Amino acid sequence: KTSIKGRDFLTLLDYTPEEVNQLLETAMQLKARAKEKSIQPLLSGKSLGMIFENSSTRTRVSFEVGMTQLGGHALFLSPKDLQIGRGEPIMDTAKVLSRYVDAIMIRTNSHEMVEELAAHADVPVINALTDAFHPCQALADLLTIKEHKPNQGKIKMAYVGDGNNVAHSLLAAGAKAGMDVAIATPEGYEVNQDIFNQAVEAAKETGAILSQTNDPAYAVNDADVIYTDVWASMGYEAEQAARMEVFTPFQVNEALAAYAKPDYLFLHCLPAHRGEEVTSEVIDGGNSVIYDQAENRLHAQKAILASLLS
Ligand code: CP
Ligand code: NVA
């Protein structure tokens, strides 16, 4: 086993396929132990500082509960309360927090800001969502697929919707796990080309096929997994009305899902908007595993925390 102790967790592209697989194995072990109610005080006496510039239900609760279950402690830090909100430099924040806590988790729009924080921090920094990546989510998504399709060879995922942070992380996850990812977005809402190229380069190691199209049916054709996300991410609320029109042909509904394999899984990182990016028939139907997926945020993050900190 290679140790990832002390590392940052920023994009998933910064981890090898073996390291990603090891995190998934650790998550499955921790999940099994949690179900048996056996105590895992792997992080006894350790603290996680959690900086949330944007709203969160799943990420906040699962990180906080995860630290408690591992015997440690989590602090919720709002930039409104931190001096960073009044202009204290990121470098000083990183250096000072590193003297108190054992890891820093951050959710903020700017990915560059997270990289700057990580560059100055002396403890691991975990990306809990930026405008570019959502690696904790993608790890939980891989875990969910592995559990629901344990014996299947190669998986094909179709991601339909906005070429956003979640789409980028699914490309990274596919590249690392050997899962094909077909992205379908409206014209003008494609994924970042530089991130796509980096993922394609990484995919050479695992043989994953990553592709992009503006045709949702083409992407969903023969898919094992259909994934979608909100049409207007946090920070893009002002574009909501304009996006509704452009994205309507990209709604995941039963007609679109009919192109996938009959036993396809439906995934959504949540929060979801029924009647917009997905219909109730699909998200609340028999192929949907959204609540298992949300639960797996807890187990995947415990694996990240345990691996980086113990
Ligand atoms: N999927 C996700 O990250 O959810 P939250 O925004 O509620 O944390
Ligand atoms: N793409 C969404 C994900 C939320 C978890 C956003 O950035 O708002």
From TrEMBL:
Cell location: Cytoplasm
Catalytic activity entry: carbamoyl phosphate + L-ornithine = L-citrulline + phosphate + H(+)
Gene Ontology biological process terms, A to Z: citrulline biosynthetic process; L-arginine biosynthetic process via ornithine
Gene3D superfamilies registered for this protein in UniProt: Aspartate/ornithine carbamoyltransferase (3.40.50.1370)
Residues involved in carbamoyl phosphate binding: S56, T57, R58, T59, Q83, R107, H134, P135, C136, Q137, C269, L270, R297
Keyword Transferase applies: yes
Signal peptide range: none
Entry GO MF terms: amino acid binding; ornithine carbamoyltransferase activity
Function summary: Reversibly catalyzes the transfer of the carbamoyl group from carbamoyl phosphate (CP) to the N(epsilon) atom of ornithine (ORN) to produce L-citrulline.
Cited HAMAP family: OTCase
Descriptive protein name: Ornithine carbamoyltransferase
Biological source species: Alkalihalophilus marmarensis DSM 21297
Source taxonomy: Bacteria, Bacillati, Bacillota, Bacilli, Bacillales
